[in-house]
């Protein structure tokens, strides 16, 4: 029973983090129609900066703010100078460019910093709350709250705000959006800044648990990608629900079957959804782009 | 400010060796409603594309309120209040009909410096006026084609444009829907009499119901222009485009 409780509760907490990782991908997809495969790598660079700041004695709050700002800045630069300009060759070229950026960042990190795991400071130590037999740390609670607030804010932003509607319009029909005065290139660049900041936030909650390596955030972004595919690219609520389902399912797989089958169970879910409902469980329209 | 809002003088457009437009002059003043007619391939949509900035004219000049705007793209021209629709509705597929119209109202907010509350009011008015209110929460793929066409015009109307360029808004509409379209545009003009309109349409009775003046293009050149009653009786226009059996209906009769 304890094992079941633990699986369910930690599944929910990690599920919301997967949703946040997924939403970071959705921000760019909603404008440009492709997914950034450099999300985890942008986060890693920002996290290394945070790691060094922490080594230098900076308090956690400063480290956290610096990581988010660095993520936003690096995301903005990558979007502005590499990926958005590549869109003139098509969205496939732009998506490939994100892979190139990610591999380049990983290569540079391995060459100049080294790939060994480094400990990253946590948002909060110690038990914050106990639910049944499960104790949640302050880091878990803060992660849950921050992810929840950000995901809710982004869902509202996409649905209700002028910028959110304009972003979706650019994704659907860039030419028509331009005819209505929508500055599509500016929105695309902005989406990279927002997405970079989200990469930083996501990384802040991943690195303390999985340590900091050039690829540790990427490993969790895969779960985020699964959350938005299962939930539907145009449904942030769907990403949250499917993130939690994935979180619980993978935790149950690890607890009751075999930890080696966690990734297998994730991809089985992905394949099942893509075969049976390609638009995702909560999506309204079929996914049509990269 | 010049009395001329949008002015194209000596406009030419070449695609390789093909002259889509040659030396066409067109002027839109506040409140002028100009119908643009002509056979398929005569350059009507090309002229709309040049005026709206989709194409850059290969010769001639485009001016707006006394300044040259040849180098401005479609987005910049839209932000000046030059708004167009397309023959095939260009609605954003993942946005509801209301959200699509809101894009127009958002542009209007920039053009006219409106408040956010006013933007919401414009959306409601445009949806109501063009008969889309019942479909406001539907996606474009989920609503009838006629609603999509009307929503495209509603989106442009929500801008409260300075210059409105309509490209075959009635194409694909039923007889009843055409009557609704005319009534809606007439109602819009009662509220916004200063809007300059350039209407491309093959339905000549519809054009003459809405536009007191016509410009006829043939093979990229001006064939005739002037008051609608005179133009449709012009022998050259009848031979080149209209045929012998065109009647001009009263605006009330069509609307």
CATH first level of chain A: which class? Answer: Mainly Alpha
* Nearest-integer average pLDDT of chain A: 92
Into which percent range does the helicity of residues of chain A fall? over 70%
Question: Strand-and-helix sequence of chain B, N→C?
Answer: EEEHEEHEHHHEHEHEEHHH
Mean pLDDT level of chain B: 91
In helices, the fraction of residues of chain B equals 40-55%
Number of distinct beta strands of chain A: 2
How many whole angstroms does the radius of gyration of chain A measure?
A: 19 Å
What is the radius of gyration of chain B computed over CA atoms, rounded to a whole number of angstroms? 18 Å
Strand-residue proportion of chain A = under 5%
Shape annotation of chain B: globular
The most extensive contact between chains is: A-B, 21 and 30 residues
Going by helix content, strand content and strand pairing, the class of chain B is alpha/beta
Number of distinct helices of chain A: 11
CATH architecture descriptor of chain A:
Orthogonal Bundle
Task: Summarize the structure in words.
The complex is a heterodimer of chains A (290) and B (255). Chain A has a single domain (2-114, 139-276), classed as Orthogonal Bundle (ABC transporter involved in vitamin B12 uptake, BtuC). Chain A is 75% helix and 3% strand. Chain A contains 11 helices and 2 strands; from the N terminus they run ααααββααααααα. Chain A has helices at residues 2-32, 39-55, 60-86, 91-112, 138-160, 162-172, 174-179, 184-210, 216-231, 236-257, 262-276, and strands spanning 127-131, 134-137. Chain B is α/β, with parallel strands linked by helices. In chain B, strands 6-7-8-3-9-10 form a 6-stranded mixed sheet, sandwiched between helices. Chain B has a 4-stranded antiparallel sheet with strand order 2-1-4-5, covered by helices on one side. Chain A binds chain B through residues 162, 165-166, 168-169, 171-173, 175-184, 234, 284-285, and chain B through 52, 54, 73-75, 78-79, 83-84, 86, 90-95, 99-100, 102-104, 106-107, 110-111, 119, 139, 141, 155, 159.
